Amino acid sequence: MASDEPRPGDLIEIFRLGYEHWAIYVGNGYVVHLGAQGSITGGSSASVLSAKTDKAIVKKELLCDVAGRDKYRVNNKHDDKYQPLPPRKIVQQAEELVGQEMPYNLTSENCEHFVNDLRYGVPRSDQAKDKTMEKLYLAAGVLLVGVSLIVMPRVPVLAMLAAAGFVSFMMNKNKPEKQ
């Protein structure tokens, strides 16, 4: 499923339906990741369930079990921006956290924040930032439709098309290039 064999300390991006789940590879086929307490391994339920709570549990599980049937890849996408910590230190820190309950917030303390903090010492999530921007563009589009309908009441279809075009343009303009 993965194009590159993971090495200890690598970030693993797992493609779920509608989002990406993130884990850190610790060796011998295992990853450490955030999941919902008592969740079933493999499949999208682990992260989706933890999105409904403010707590997650740090788990060490086989990558093949965590990914299930979903595709995954090694994606150390910030190596050009941040100096990765030594692999031994990344793995040690990750394994020390296994079993611990961690704060969880979809936009500020999610699985991507967790693994980036382990690898780079920088908790960041491009996915959370992108979702927040999408909501802002959607709100701007709704506002634009309202204003357009007031300004051009006789051509509502044109107003809606203009707003949809604006939202689409802004969402695509700010998406990072796939690496």
What's the SSE pattern? Answer: EEEHEHEHEHHH
The helix content is 40-55%
Extract low-pLDDT stretches: 44-50, 173-179
Global geometry = elongated
For the termini, the CA-CA separation is 17 Å
Q: How would you write the strand order of the largest sheet?
A: 5-1-2-3-4-6
Structural class by sheet pairing and helices: alpha+beta
Q: Would you kindly provide a written description of the structure presented here, covering whatever features stand out?
A:
The protein has 179 residues and is of the alpha+beta class. The protein has six helices and six strands. It has helices spanning 45-50, 63-67, 87-97, 111-120, 126-151, 156-173; strands at 11-16, 19-27, 30-35, 55-62, 72-74, 101-103. A six-stranded antiparallel β-sheet has the order 5-1-2-3-4-6. Strand 2 (19-27) and strand 3 (30-35) form a beta hairpin.
Summary of the model, kept short:
With 179 residues, the protein is an alpha+beta fold. The chain has helices at residues 45-50, 63-67, 87-97, 111-120, 126-151, 156-173; strands at residues 11-16, 19-27, 30-35, 55-62, 72-74, 101-103.
